[in-house]
Amino acid sequence: MTSAANGVTELVAPSSVVCLPGEPVLFLANNAVVAIGRGIARLGTRTIDGVSGEVLVATVCGPLTRRKGNFPGAPWSYSIEAAGGRYLPCVGDAVVGTVVRVLPLSYQISLGGAHPATLDALAFDGATKASRPRLKMGDHVYCHVVTAAKDADVDVSCCAVGDMEAKEWTTGESVFGPLHHGCVVRVGLSYARKLQSSDSSNIVLSLLGERVPFEIAVGANGRVWVRGAPSGADASLEQTRTIAVAACVAESQHDVTSLDVRARVESYFPAVGGAHHRVGGAGATESGTKNALSSADNEE
């Protein structure tokens, strides 16, 4: 049992053990400030060590995840994501979606859930009726969930959220927006959350960033978009990098230890060279989302 700030006591260590349904995972004092996500339910009021509060239990099988809030001063959020199963949209999730239907004023986006989400045609920073992305069937977008009420339609947006600096979609520097070229691979939901987090045990992206330049957008819905950096000297290098990075990221979800991860990355990219990549994650700021974990080309 470990204590955390703001009146929250963690009854299990985050990201280190698999919680079983019904197992107590958090104890919230009366003054606790915290956001509770999926996979956790309130059990009732209890008194532990003379402190009165609420006990929260797991409702699914998976590791407890702790994440920072979407903006400065926001409370920590906790959730438990089952390794398998269908994705359930949650407000604030950064997701990778695929266009499955084009309408005059909106797009239907598949997130891997039971029903497609709706993306307004103008839900891009700087978009107007005359200047907006013209998406086609099969195109991929990086967006965040705006509404996800039970038994209601899911809405997503590609506009900046929280303290992100809004940049017009035409600049190519916005956090959310169309994902051009590259490929999309599917991973477990809990592994996707781990890739999005700043957990020090998540080393696969930092190791890859030391060896090869690429871009990546990680969706909480278990979809990961990867694009290797193009090379003027070799036109085929972009595709080679894309395939290798995507395969390495997907296969690393089955590695148990950091040594396993290092060995896998080394098997794909044995030579160390300058690199740069951007990581899309839920709740990240623009600079954190676009450049997190990238430092090998000494831009910082």
If you had to describe this structure to a student in words, what would you say it looks like?
There is one protein chain. With 300 residues, the protein is an alpha+beta fold. It folds into three domains: 2-80, Beta Barrel (OB fold (Dihydrolipoamide Acetyltransferase, E2P)); 94-179, Nucleic acid-binding proteins (OB fold (Dihydrolipoamide Acetyltransferase, E2P), Beta Barrel); 183-291, 2-Layer Sandwich (Ribosomal Protein S8, Chain: A, domain 1). Helices cover 15% and strands 32% of the residues. The protein has helices at residues 189-196, 204-209, 237-251, 258-268, 286-291; strands at 2-3, 8-10, 18-19, 24-29, 35-36, 40-48, 51-58, 62-67, 77-80, 94-102, 106-110, 117-124, 140-147, 155-158, 177-179, 183-186, 214-218, 223-228, 279-280. A hairpin with a 4-residue loop joins strand 1 (2-3) and strand 2. The longest helix has 15 residues, at 237-251. The two termini are 38 Å apart.
